[in-house]
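Bit of a strange request maybe. I'm writing a small parser for C-alpha cell strings and I need a real example to test against, not something I typed by hand. Could someone generate the C-alpha cells for this chain?
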Amino acid sequence: MARRARPVLAAMGPPVFDRMRSEPLFRQVYQALRAAILEGRLKAGTRLPPTRDLAQEWGLSRNTVMTAYDLLLAEGYVEGRVGAGTYVCPALPDVPVAASTIPAAERRGAGLSRRGAELAAREPWRRTVEGRPFALGHPALDAFPFVLWGQLLARPWRTGGAGLAMEGDPLGFRPLREAVAEYLRAVRAVRCSWEQVVIVSSSQQALDLVARLLLDPGDAVWMEEPGWRGIRAALRAAGARLVPVPVDGEGLDVSIGEQTAPEARAAVVTPSHQFPLGMTMSLARRLRLLDWAARADAWIVEDDYDSEFRYAGPPLAALQGLDTAGRVIYVGSFSKVMFPALRLGYLVVPPDLVDAVTAARSFLDGGSTVVTQAALACFMAEGHFAGHLRRMRSLYGERRAALLDSLERHLAGTLAPEPGDAGLHLVARLAGGLSDKAVVARAGRRDVLASALSDHYQEETEASGLILGFAAHPAEALDAAVKRLVPACRATLPDPAPPASSRRWPSG
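Reply from user aminoacidic:
Good idea to test on real output. This should exercise your parser:
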C-alpha cells in the first residue's frame, strides 16, 4: 500500500464501488470522499493522497479519481496547494450541519402555512414568443430532434390507449417520476426516491405551489440580490415579504440574511449557477444556510434552473444532497433542456411534505397532462435525453465562445463579460456610466432583445450591465446581433426612427 494513501483509507474504511450502478464511478468516488469530509472522518487540513496512489489502492483508473478530485475542488471541499498536493479545505466547519432542534410538537403545523394546512386537509381527488438575440432561457430549437419527439408522442396512444385519457396521479406519471429521480441521483447527487418527485407545468407553478403550502401573507422570504424577477413576482403574489440578501463571489451572504431577517420563513436560492451573475455558492455558505434553516424551522427553495449546462467538467452536486434535516425543496424544469412549450418541470419535496403536496395538487389542478409525460419518460429511459444533453453542452459551449469572441472584437472597452463556465446566458458590465435600461431600449429598436442587469435588483443599484442569452442562435446570428448592439451602446448617437413596416415586439 502506498504510504501516502494510508491515512485516508483508514479514515474512510473499505470503499464499495459498484460498476453496475447508474452513477458513474467518478461520482461514487466523489460521494465517498465528500461523505468522509462532511462526517468529520477526514478532518480540515488533511492531505489527500495523490490521484495515482488512490487509484492504485482502489483499483480504479487515475482519470476517475482525478475527475472526483476536480468536483471536490470546484465545490470547495478541498483546495490545491502548488507543489504541495490536495488538502481538505481548512475553512470548513468543525461540526456537521445541525438537525432541527425544535420538537415536532412545537413546529409550526408540520411546516405548513394556514392556507397550506387548509388545502392539505381536503380529501385528494384525481382529475412562445419567437426568440430574438439575446432572449433569456431560449434553447437551440434548431438542434432538437422533433421527428423523434413526434414518434414518442404517438407511441403512448398506440400502447396506452384509453388509460392515458383518464386523469392520472396528481403528482405525475410514475415512469417519468422514476426517470427523473434516477437522473437526479446520478447526475445532481440529489437524495430522493421517486415518491418525492412531483411533476408540474413549470418552475413558476412549482414556486406558486410551495408558496401556497408554506407561506402565510407577510412571511419574510430571503431573495438573492440580484435575482430572477419571475421568482419575485410569484412570491409577491402569495403575499410574502421579500428580503433582498446580497450575493458576492461565494453566493448568497447568509450572515447578512441572518442579521436582516433571522426569522424568515424561507430562502429562495440558485446555488449551482446564481441568476443572473453566475457564481456557484461555496460549500461553507451552503452549510451555513442549511444550519440556519434547521435552527430557524425555515425552508430552502433550490431553483436549479440550468445546471445541466456546465462547460468545465460535469454538473455540480445540488444543495439538496447536503440536507439532513429535510428543509430543502428542489425545483427543476425541462423548458431549457428540451423546449419551452413542453411545459413540464418538477419538484423534489422532503418526505414529510408528500401528503400535503398530493392534497394541494389534486385540489388545485389535478396534475399535468399525461401524454407528454409518457413521451418524456420514454425519451429519458431510452437514452435520448442524456444524448441530447451531451450534444447541447457541446453546441452551447461553441455558441458561448462565439459570443465572447464577438464582444471582444466589436465592444471591447464598452462591455466587459463576467467570468463563468455554465448556463445559457452571460453577464457583461457596461463601462463609462452607460445606463443599461437605456441601452436595452435602444437595442430593442434594432431588433435585439437584451436584458438590463439592474432590472433584477429589488433595491436601487449602481450596477449596469446586459444579460445576454446565447443558446438559441448560431454564431453568425450572434455576431450580427452584437454589431447591432454597438450603436445602442453609444449614448451620444441619436436613435434611428423604426421603419414603418417594422414589427412591434414585446418588451420581454
